Each structure stands twice: as C-alpha cells, then as structure tokens.
C-alpha cells in the first residue's frame, strides 16, 4: 500500500486512521457479525452510531440545544431549493454572490420568490469577498445567503456579513469543521460532507429550531421539508448510514486532534507554508486578494498555461494528486483540508521550489 | 471474525466477497494511492467506476438504449415527489395501493394533481395483490403507479397490471435484480439500492428517454428534475460515489453468479425451502395469499404473540439477526435477498423445526 498526497477539492483526503478502522470493521462491526452497510437503520446498533455521531458534532461545534442537526441527502445543490422552500415566507431573500455555488443557490431561489443579488465579486472572477459591512439588505428579506468558503476560487469570509438583523444562511461545505464558528450567528449553517468530513452523499444542516415549521411553500416535497427530517431524527427514510458512520469516526479523530481550536491552528500553519512560498516565489502566485484567502483551497498560477500544464503533469508523477485547477479558473489548486497532513504541504512546497529552479 | 445470518429487510446482507474486496481496497484503490471515498468524482478513475457500473447493470437487466440509468439520492421517498413533478403533465395519475410505500407515494402525488387510488388491498392488511387485469384506468392518466414487491407485507405482483396503454411506473426496491424483468414494459422502473444491491443512500432509476424533458411542474427543484441528472450522467453534483462503487461490485458478483436468470432460480429455491416448511408446520404460518408471495420478504407468525417474541429472542441468540416483523404487522419476517446464501435459509428452517418441537 502506497498512499499519495491527495489535494482534491472534494471528495477529498480522509484521515488514514479512519480509513483503517473502516476497513477493519468491514466484515464484522464490533462483534455484531455484519458490516455497518448491512445494518437495519432501525437497529439499536445503528441508532447508537447516529446518536454518538450527532453528539460528537455537537461537542465539536458547541451547537446550542435550540439547533437541530440534520443528516440529509442530495448535496448542497438540493439545499439551494430546500432553503427557499422552507424559509421564504415573504418570498424575498438576499444573496451575496462570491462564486459559482452562491450563484447557483441564487439562481435556484429565483424559482420561489424574489432573490436579490445584493453584492457580487463576479467582476473580478470571484477573486475577493465584497465589503459586507453595510449592504442594501431588503426590508422584508426572509434571509441573507452566503457561501462562506469558495472552493473554486479560494476565498473565504473572514467576517460574517452585517445582515442588519436578518437571518443568515451559510453554505460552509469547504470550510466545515476547519475552525470554530459561533453557531448562534446563523439561522442555518450547512455543508456537504465530502470535502472536510467524509464520503460524498450527505449534507449536514444545523438549523435553529424555530425555523423548522410546517409552513413551507405549496408543493414542497415531504423530503424537502426540514420538519420531516427533524421530527424523525434524520430517519424519516433510510439515511446514508455508511456516510454517517464514517463521519462519526472523523469527529472522533477531530476530538483526538484537539477539537476545532487545534484544527484552526494546524490549518493556519499549513496554509501559511503554502502562501508564504507563493508570496516569495518568482514563478508561482496566488490568484485571490490576500485578505480573503481561504485556509482550505489555495489556487495558484505561473501565468503561463504551458508551464501550468507541465507542473500538473510532473507533480502527479511525483505523487501529488489533483493539483489541476478548476476548469473555470485554470492553473493549479491545492485543497488542504483537515485531513491533509502538514508533511503533505511541506512536500508540495519543496516540489514547487525544485520545479521553479528547474524551469527558470 | 464471525458473520451472522442477517435477515434484515434493508439495509441488508451483502455478498461477503464484495465486502472483502471493499475492505482490501480501502486504503489504496488499485494502486492509485487513495480510497474510492477520497477520489474526485471528476477523476478518470471514478469515471471508469461509474461507467462500468452502469454498463454492468445494463448487461444484467438488458436495458435498451432508449432508457437512461440514473443514480440519484434521497431514496424512494424522494421519488414519490419526483415522479409526479416530472410526469404529471395532465395532473392525473392512477395508484394501486398494495402497502405502506405505495400508499405514501399516492399521498405525496396528491400534492401535485389528481392521484386516484384505483385499487387497494388495505382491506386485508395488504396481504394480497388485487386483480389488476381490468382496472378503471383514468382516461387522462399520466401514468399508473405500483410498488412491485411489498417489503413489509411480503407480497409481489406476479403479473404487471393491465395499464390499458398508459405508462407504468414501478418501485422495485425490494425485488431489484432478484429476477429478470422486461424493462420495455415500464416508463420508469426504480428502486432504492439498500435492499438487494448495496449500502443505503441511493436510488437507481431507469427511465425511458422520451419521459425526460424540461417540461416539469412549476417549482420543481433543479435536483428533482430527471433531465438535470440525465444530461450530466448522474454527476450534476457529487453523487454517492462510494455507493456506486459498492453497487458496481455487486453487479460483477451477480454476473459471476450467472446473471438474473440464475438469481431467479436460486431465489425460487431459497423461498421454496422456507414456504414449504411454513405450509407443513403446525406452529408457523405465512401471512399472505400464496399466489402473491414474495421471493424476497417472507412474513410469518405463530399466532401467539408471546411465542413470536420468544422465537425472535432465541433465533437472535442462535445467530439469526433481524427476524422481528415490521412494527405494523408483528410476528416475524425473513428477508432473503440475493446475497442471503441458501445455507442461511436452510439453517433458519432447521432452527424453526427445532423451535417447533421444543415448544409444542
């Protein structure tokens, strides 16, 4: 077995010890004689798994009691509809468009009401986060929507927008559990798990209880009603059991690593290694405004497409996977999620230095 | 490692050799240095997996070229909304209600149009399949809906209903790949994979191409529009990659076992062992009409609740898991899906004989 350094933007690298445990428990989960994949979701064994998974997440994020934790299918893309269908009582919402995913969410919301784009950074290929201290928040806005870390472009909100008292809804898919957050600042904070937490196929949505009601837009499917899932402890129908199980193991790993405070420190250290190099390199440079740099997704270019392609090819041959940038941006991108070890970033920078010297 | 005989109705037993392979490939899939869970869904490696999975399913089921195969999230419960949202052009559909899942589908469809219950077996606790040779099919029905195998009650359509030329939509979750079917008889044939195929968290929908259009009901979310997924080869957003991978392995296993013709023979043999015993036992009896018996789910009772409870308890202690019947039916239920070996059914019948003798 030989593992590579995997810089994929998602699905992405998982902690090696988690994978090892999953493999060991595959034929026989803790003496029960079956795999977690084979367990009835109504069994005591699986109930223990989902309960403990939720509890560990609540501990890690300090989730207050008046917030529900839901394990949902369909990805963030399904939330783009689910959010307006459940929250748009006045049929008005404000969207801050800082990348492709925020834009898709904004476009989807237009099906259900007046979705206002109150700020955007599309003028400069989403390479920055707009000033959100005094935006024209709509008087009757049901919520203000953001995508907190922009996977493709490599930006992140360092401060939450001033919503002027309106509810904040945030997609944190690519910065989920990368640092502590104050859950009470959000109405809904949610993310797909396939970047920083587990295998693809699940969203975790953390929702303030009073927002979970039967008063949804007409025609909202039962499965797209938060209340359906909240009332059933995320088991209205069979959930993605295996994903819940793997996420649970990642939560244990995060606790062992020291929790989100420690992860933040580690992530800052990792990102600094890469950004410091980019800032002094004569060949490579980062593509986003320094103040808005993501700790998780680091896009960079040489400024020469052929050289970019050469770098991607040679880095792969050297054991660095998935460094090619998103097709809409080009260049390179290193996603350095929680599970990427510091050694992976150090090795990448060493490789970049060598490449720079060899290709001056 | 000690494996039990797992009679769970779903999630359910998987082939041991599939689990073994999954465990072996967990840290390093075929020398690529990562787990399938860690792979970008846009990578060549994963593309090979999803393509081969679809191809093997097409081979197994002889799916014609004018049918699309979609890998979707949200379970059958989400299809209950997705089907009317995509197909109810006239806002009329006919439902045959033969169990809890057909009933839920019928109820959900009422949100979107006139959903007629044209037949039901609820009068006798869903213990039979109604005569469907000459039902009052609505003249303007967009489709006729059935649940082909009723997991909870243990019934199965031995013949498809006469839809009088209308489109047939069928939920085959609990008989998926248990025997050959003629796909051309369906407009949509779909099922959750967590019973007969793989881990929970995915539905496979096989849809006639001409039914996949942009002409959906107003307010249909992008993610609930079949065309979204069909146009993107089930990768509009990140799919349940790990589930696709495991299902792919089960398809290889089915091919190796001789395909669906061989599975049918094997399943009939397995079911006969259990039904033959039930028919001659003086303690146990099956709960459904013989002509409508499912090959997959076999509910049975002693007629005495205390004895039922004793049986469930003692069978579990003897290594037979999940024999307790569904809470709405009581008694016992043995789900004997494709991956349940004949030896498991033989061992169960031997145990039942012993129990009968000991408790006369």
Please describe the structure with a list of short key phrases separated by commas or semicolons.
homodimer, three-stranded antiparallel sheet, about 350 residues, alpha/beta
Oligomer: homodimer
Main sheet: strand order of chain A: 2-10-9-8-5-3-4
Percent range for β-strand residues of chain A: 15-25%
Biggest β-sheet strands, sense, barrel of chain A: 7 strands, mixed
Low-confidence runs of at least 5 consecutive residues of chain A: none
The shape of chain A, in one word, is globular
Which pair has the most extensive contact?
A-B, 70 and 70 residues
H/E element string of chain A? EHHEHEHEEEEEEEHHHEEHEEH
Class inferred from helices and paired strands of chain A: alpha/beta
Helix content estimate of chain A: 25-40%
Q: How many helices of chain A in DSSP terms?
A: 9
Total strand segments of chain A: 14
Rg of chain A (CA only):
21 Å
Average residue-wise pLDDT of chain A: 97
Give the N-terminus to C-terminus distance of chain A in angstroms: 35 Å
């Amino acid at each position: 077995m030989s593992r590579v350094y995997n810089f994929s933007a998602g699905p992405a690298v998982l902690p090696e010890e988690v994978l090892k445990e999953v493999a060991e428990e595959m034929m026989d989960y803790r003496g029960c004689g079956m795999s977690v994949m084979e367990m009835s979701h109504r069994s005591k064994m699986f109930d223990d798994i989902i309960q403990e998974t939720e509890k560990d997440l609540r501990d890690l994020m300090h989730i207050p009691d008046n917030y529900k934790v839901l394990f949902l299918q369909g990805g963030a893309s399904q939330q783009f509809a689910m959010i307006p269908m459940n929250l748009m009582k006045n049929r008005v919402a404000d969207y801050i468009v800082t990348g492709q995913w925020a834009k898709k969410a904004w476009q989807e919301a237009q099906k259900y009401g007046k979705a206002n784009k109150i700020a955007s950074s599309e003028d400069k290929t989403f390479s920055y986060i707009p000033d959100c201290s005094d935006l024209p928040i709509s008087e009757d806005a049901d919520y203000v929507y953001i995508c907190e870390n922009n996977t493709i472009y490599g930006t992140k909100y360092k401060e939450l927008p001033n919503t002027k008292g309106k509810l904040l809804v945030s997609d944190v898919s690519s910065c989920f559990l990368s640092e502590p957050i104050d859950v009470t600042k959000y109405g809904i904070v949610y993310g797909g798990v396939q970047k920083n937490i587990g295998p693809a196929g699940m969203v975790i949505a953390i929702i303030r209880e009073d927002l979970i009601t039967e008063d949804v837009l007409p025609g909202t499917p039962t499965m797209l009603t938060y209340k359906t899932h909240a009332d059933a402890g995320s088991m209205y129908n069979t959930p993605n059991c295996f994903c819940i199980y793997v996420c649970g193991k990642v939560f244990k790993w995060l606790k062992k690593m020291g929790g989100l405070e420690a992860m933040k420190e580690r992530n800052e250290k990792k990102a600094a290694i890469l950004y410091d190099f980019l800032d002094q390199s004569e060949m490579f440079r980062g593509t986003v405004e320094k103040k808005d740099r993501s700790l998780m997704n680091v896009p960079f270019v040489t400024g020469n497409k052929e050289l970019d392609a050469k770098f991607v090819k040679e880095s792969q041959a050297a054991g660095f996977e998935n460094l090619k940038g998103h097709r809409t941006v080009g260049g390179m991108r290193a996603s350095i999620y929680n599970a990427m070890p510091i050694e992976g970033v150090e090795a990448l920078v060493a490789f970049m230095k060598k490449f720079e010297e060899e290709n001056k």
